[in-house]
Design brief:
The chain has about 325 residues and is of the alpha/beta class. The protein has one domain: NAD(P)-binding Rossmann-like Domain (Rossmann fold). The strands form 4 sheets. It has a 7-stranded parallel sheet with strand order 3-2-1-4-5-7-12, with helices on both faces. A 4-stranded mixed sheet has the order 6-15-10-13. Strand 1, helix 1 and strand 2 form a beta-alpha-beta unit.
Length: about 325
């Protein structure tokens, strides 16, 4: 069974490729970025492709039985939402990628598509309420989180209309773990872990005031859910939240946990001038629990320890 992973050089992509190979699958990774060290070690066939070009998208999914479509323009709050032009770029880039990949899958008669959507599809004004919790039907009134959220919602709608194959849609809430992006566009956990590893050469500054709350899912649990979603793909698409509702933490508490994991004496400073993102969003995972027989199993503390150990090794000994 030939399985293609778009965005295969990314954080979720590398972990997914690794899991598929462990299942004995024939896997092809595709990405606009070059294969990183982790992907190279897996010795998986790799296609360098710009999915904004339909012909390249068509070549990527050729002869595929299943496509995990992860490729997207992603990054930090500042990177995606820092200006109207950033919002527009996230909207247009991700829409073009999704349209090309889904059309290519249609023409190539791909049997299954697994699409990684986002918690960003839920109404952003409701995400400004403390303790906001979302089930899959809580999509109205439609008001996604900026250009990125709109693009993901339109991607979901495209699969709703696809009809030619079975599919699954994973609305992922704040995944973290090994092979995360650690650079300037990193999301909150890898960004804070990088700062802790590099301290005192890099200040441990937290964006915002530390009051927003989040629920984080460790990458191993996220990948297990994606694999299950492929098994239960359907038409109309099965849409499920993939997240961990069990441990809500403020960003301040998260920073404190990371400092503790580091074993260093690190003073935490906050920069209220920097974007903080939404105030709160917690996934309701009842549907995933019932339909996929799945639940997250990794406590936040354990996941942070795994991620910190990996990041420390990677940053200090990248080879």
């Amino acid at each position: 069974m030939r399985t293609v992973v778009t965005g295969g050089a990314g954080f979720i992509g590398v972990n997914l490729v690794k899991a598929l190979i462990e299942q004995g699958r024939e896997v092809v990774a595709a990405d606009i970025a070059p294969p990183n060290i982790a992907l190279q070690k897996l010795s998986v066939p790799f296609l360098h492709a710009d999915l904004r070009d339909f012909n390249q998208a068509l070549k990527v999914v050729e002869d595929a039985d299943a496509v995990y479509h992860l490729a997207a323009k992603v990054g930090s709050v500042e990177y995606l939402h820092g200006s109207p032009l950033a919002e527009l770029d996230a909207l247009q880039t991700n829409m073009v990628i999704d349209i090309n990949v889904m059309k290519a899958c249609l023409e190539s008669k791909v049997q299954k598509i697994i699409y990684t959507s986002s918690a960003g599809v839920y109404p952003i004004h409701l995400q400004q309420n403390q303790g906001a919790r979302f089930a899959e039907d809580d999509i109205k009134p439609i008001n996604p989180d900026g250009g990125y959220g709109w693009a993901k919602l339109i991607g979901e709608i495209s699969l709703d209309l696809h009809g030619a194959c079975k599919s699954g849609i994973a609305r992922i809430f704040n995944a973290y773990g090994e092979y995360s992006e650690l650079g300037e566009n990193a999301q909150v956990i890898p960004a804070l872990i990088r700062k802790a590893v590099n301290y005192p050469n890099e200040p441990f500054t937290v964006w915002g005031d530390g009051t927003p709350t989040r629920n984080f899912i460790y990458i191993k649990d996220c990948i297990n859910a994606l694999l299950k979603l492929e098994q239960y793909a359907s038409y109309p698409p099965l849409k499920v939240n993939i997240g961990n509702p069990n441990e809500m933490v403020t960003i301040k508490q998260l920073a404190e946990k990371i400092v503790t994991v580091s074993g260093k004496k690190i003073p935490i400073t906050f920069d209220p001038k920097m974007p903080r993102g939404c105030l709160s969003r917690t996934p309701d995972i009842k549907r995933a629990s019932i339909e996929l027989d799945w639940k997250p199993e990794t406590p936040l503390q354990e996941g942070l320890e795994h991620t910190y150990n990996w990041a420390e090794q990677f940053l200090n000994h990248p080879q």
